[in-house]
Task: inverse folding
């Protein structure tokens, strides 16, 4: 089903009634958030969560993010909402920030991938928020891609990954951000970034100075970062900053079809398919997953992605690009 742009308030509520009903009854609904599309199910219903793992082909040790309306929605899921979590939620919710806390015993183990922690976030998207509100349950929702594929930023990407269908796909157009939320361990006094994402370390630093000095993200700690991810069929070559065009020229020489995504414009090379030449890193984040999928649709064997400066959202972008390159 699709939500026309400009739909608001009571219209949206009426439109989403069937999807909320499906969620309440243990079904699976793909829906947009501001980051990427999620594959949602009631986080408190083990059979529904199981259906999400099965549909995605997701390893059972990779926990799901639970989507809530606000901090009050998160409280029953956590043993304790730490002062740090309250502070970060106050600063960034609703928004692309996921908080990891000790899980309450009522959260099914399947949802937390067997961990005794739970990840919670309040998405900043009218459709996601209305589904959470109307279904009356917290929604476990991983990105709505088959495990290992790039995250979906449009409903068409979701449909392509699940040819057998999910109960409902709610199409509300492309996602604004295009890259996933930042996952932060909030159990201690200082935040620890487990997965870099749309909210930058610099932004976290404005709310909690320690985030800036926390050093590099502790990538071992978020189970999802251990698994292969974001892989297109094409070989992904990461070019140094500024050297995208020359890398493209080298590969074009070899005669295979080459795709390009990067900030430095490629102007004088024929035989290259342009996947995107965004104007800045945020814009590149927005295009990245669609470009990886486009590369597959075009049957490209080689894709050059030019590196971006690893500051701000560039940290998350480089994390995704490196993983796409394998
Ligand atoms: O923006 C997003 O976060 C999107 C939208 C749909 O909200 N969701 C998303 O979910 O990216 P998923 O499942 O693709 O990625 C969730 C990440 C994984 O790396 C997972 O390991 C990590 O969050 N995670 C979930 N629960 C965790 C926990 N208790 N402790 C540590 N990491 C956790
Ligand atoms: Mg994912």
Result:
């Amino acid at each position: 089903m699709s939500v026309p742009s400009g739909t608001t308030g009571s219209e949206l509520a009426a439109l989403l009634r069937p999807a909320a009903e499906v969620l309440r009854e243990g079904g699976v609904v793909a829906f947009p958030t501001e980051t990427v599309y999620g594959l949602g199910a009631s986080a408190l219903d083990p059979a529904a969560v199981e259906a999400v793992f099965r549909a995605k082909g997701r390893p059972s040790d990779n926990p799901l993010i639970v989507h809530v309306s606000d901090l009050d929605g998160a409280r029953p899921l956590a043993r304790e909402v730490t002062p740090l979590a309250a502070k970060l939620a106050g600063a960034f919710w609703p928004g692309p920030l996921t908080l990891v806390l000790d899980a309450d015993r009522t959260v099914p183990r399947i949802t937390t991938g067997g961990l005794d922690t739970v990840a919670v976030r309040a998405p900043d998207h009218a459709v996601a928020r209305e589904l959470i509100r109307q279904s009356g349950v917290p929604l476990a929702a991983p990105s709505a891609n088959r495990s290992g594929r790039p995250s979906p930023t449009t409903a068409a990407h979701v449909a392509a990954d699940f040819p057998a269908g999910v109960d409902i796909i709610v199409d509300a157009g492309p996602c604004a951000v295009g890259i996933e939320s930042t996952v932060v361990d909030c159990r201690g006094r200082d935040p620890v970034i487990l997965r870099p994402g749309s909210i930058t370390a610099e932004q976290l630093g404005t709310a909690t100075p320690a985030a800036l000095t926390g050093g590099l993200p502790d990538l071992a700690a978020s189970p999802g970062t251990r698994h292969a991810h974001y892989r297109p069929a094409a070989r992904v070559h990461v070019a140094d900053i500024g050297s995208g065009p020359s890398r493209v020229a080298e590969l074009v020489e070899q005669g295979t079809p080459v795709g390009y995504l990067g900030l430095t414009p490629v102007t004088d090379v024929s035989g290259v398919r342009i996947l995107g030449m965004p104007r800045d890193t945020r814009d590149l984040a927005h295009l990245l997953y669609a470009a990886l999928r486009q590369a597959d649709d075009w049957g490209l064997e080689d894709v050059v992605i030019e590196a971006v400066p690893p500051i701000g959202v560039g940290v998350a972008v480089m994390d995704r690009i490196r993983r796409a390159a394998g």
